[in-house]
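Appendix C reproduces, verbatim, an entry submitted by the partner laboratory led by Prof. M.T., so that reviewers can inspect both the input and the predicted structure.
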Amino acid sequence: MTAQGTTVQGHCDPAFAAVRDVFERNFAEGREIGAAVAVYSGGRKVVDLWGGLADRRTGRLWLEHTPAFGFSCTKALTATAALLLAERGAFDWDAPVTAWWPGFGVHGKDAATNEHLFTHQAGLPAFARPVTAEEAADADARAAELAAQEPEWKPGTAHGYHALTYGWLAGNLVRHFAGMPAGEFVKKEFAADLDLWVGSSDEVIERAARLTNVRGVQNETGPRAVDDEARLTRLANAFLDTESRMNRGLNNPSPGKGGFNNPVVLRAGWPSAGMVATARAFGRFYANLVAGRYVRPETLREGIRTRVRGEDLTLTVDSAFGRGFMRPSMTFFTPEAGQESAFGHTGAGGALGLADVDADLAIAYLPNRMGDQLSGDLRSYRLVEAAYASL
């Protein structure tokens, strides 16, 4: 079954009709199976749309309250939890990790700071051995395993995306100072009344959208995040090399049977890639964050200030990060209007959470058809572009 001809449902303010047009076009041109998008402007929900199939195997429809997996969009939730804990005085960003995690200081990692865990500078972008989904559910053991590893570069001297290990590094800091798993703290502090979870119940898993890798028409024309052929070649080579740092980091722990539909992964709530949410709830999270409901405005601005920018030792192209948040770069492809003040995080397959502190804008997009672009997903880019153009 396909989602072509899908009737998009929900609400869209007439001023943001361009967002609906892009969303509907993605379905009409066969680029979606099922998806949802939400936009908040000035704290007001102006777009709340969904459509297509939540499960192409069974024909189950994507409904108003269908949640979807957000992959690395989760990292922004973990980062916000850390901002709140630091604001409350739980820890100092510049203090050494060893002040609270003594076992981390081996193999030259003793100078690593708390901030390095969030800026992808810790030098631990991958586990040294294959890790299963079942093993990954043991947060204490996986954190201890990373702490005992030799870094792939001296912490603080370079940055490289910690795609999954972020969850047992940054997530371990949150767990230590919050006294509970990062996902529980996120739910308690930010999402008690939102359809958003990092660590899902079986009931949530049962009604969640099912991810699919089915090939289809992709956005092949338009702006590209990476337009230099040499960089594209390097990116493609790293993607195809099973021993590259990119593949070692992106694919280990293995999610196991069913990929990231695996209930073992969804229940565990990896702080790097474990969020299940509706676009409406995820967008509301960012709207609340921008509005100062979670942390003080000055805390947020300092948290999103770019700490590292340039060639990413894992992804091979340029990336930029604040304290756990992506900033506009080749890996966070943003229209010109958001280049200075947008922040957020992408997720594998095309998922996106983005906010803009100056424009008072929040956008969430969650699809279940996995995009296959190596240089940015134009489905989400076009939605963001349309939202900015509607302001």
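The domain at 14-389 is CATH 3.40.710.10 (Beta-lactamase). Additional entries are available on request from the coordinating office.
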